[in-house]
Specification:
Elements (H helix, E strand, L loop, with lengths): L4 H4 L5 H24 L23 E6 L4 E7 L5 E5 L5 E7 L4 E4 L37 E7 L11 E7 L6 E7 L10 E3 L5 E3 L2 E2 L10 E2 L6 E2 L6 E5 L2 E5 L2 E2 L10
Antiparallel strand pairs: 1-2, 2-3, 3-4, 4-5, 6-7, 7-8, 8-9, 9-10, 10-11, 12-14, 13-16, 14-15
Length: 259
């Protein structure tokens, strides 16, 4: 507090100045008390007990971080309810966008999430004991389709099949089968393993015998010959192989005695 000349010269008592200072201090303290009780948010930092609403009726509204010289990151709110995160350093690049109209959350930046539109998984994809994977195929009226798990030699060669397993579906409700094979067209029925809905299977176009057609030993009927006791003709089927055992006598060279 500086003393004026008249005080220094003894014309006015210093007690009067001290009294005026106390009055001013009381007024300042009262203003501060009122300010503390007002419903305002302090620039230095404060706590809001209610909602902060941004009116987007006229223009986009943002909550933006800054380093004092330039904007860094913004949470942006559009009139139609769209909400997104902007990278202000990189030309307002949309890191993510949520659209209430489509109910979609779209991530534009590189992330550890797998995108529905297609992505590359660099680690292990594991399904737990309850996990399932379902592949849907186009309607048969759109033409034939093959869907499954296909293999490529490297990331940059992803458009070239080296082999695969899956399901082939013909056009207009035509043939359908499961396939496993090599090459760019592993669903080719003439080059791989094919399993059809009835359980039959082919390998490179040739039918694979199954145990369903196997038999035990069956007596083979004969005509024009005589069977030898305890050595009658019998046959058994195992896969594509037919085994016949037994003996006959009085066989003419041109006689068909069993079929």
């Amino acid at each position: 507090m500086a003393l004026r000349r008249d005080v220094k010269e003894g014309n006015i008592k210093i007690e009067n100045y001290i009294s005026e200072f106390e009055v001013l201090k009381k007024q300042i303290d009262e203003l501060q008390r009122k300010l503390n009780t007002m419903d305002v948010v302090k620039k230095s930092g404060d706590t809001m007990s209610g909602d902060l609403k941004l009116d987007t009726d006229i223009a986009l509204k943002r909550l933006t971080s800054t380093d004092g010289n330039k904007d860094l990151i913004s949470l942006a709110f559009a009139k139609n309810g769209t909400f997104f995160l902007e990278d202000r350093i990189n030309s307002n690049f949309n890191v993510f966008v949520y659209s209430p109209d489509k109910k979609e959350f779209i991530v534009g930046a590189n992330t550890n999430l797998v995108k529905k539109t297609g992505d590359i998984i660099t680690g292990l994809l594991r399904f737990n004991s309850l996990g399932q994977m379902l592949m849907a195929q186009p309607d048969s009226a759109t033409g034939p389709s093959a869907r499954g798990l296909h293999y490529a030699d490297k990331d940059t060669d992803g458009s070239v099949n080296r082999g695969g397993i899956g399901r082939f579906k013909g056009a207009n409700n035509g043939e359908e089968y499961l396939y496993m094979g090599f090459g760019t067209n592993p669903w080719d029925s003439q080059s791989g393993l094919i399993v059809r809905p009835d359980g039959s299977a082919t390998l490179k176009g040739k039918k694979i015998a199954t145990a369903d057609n196997d038999t035990g030993w069956i007596k083979l009927p004969t005509t024009g010959v005589e069977n030898i006791p305890d050595r009658i003709l019998k046959y058994k089927r195992s896969g594509d192989q037919i085994t016949v055992i037994g003996s006959v006598k009085y066989l003419a060279s041109t006689t068909v005695f069993a079929t």
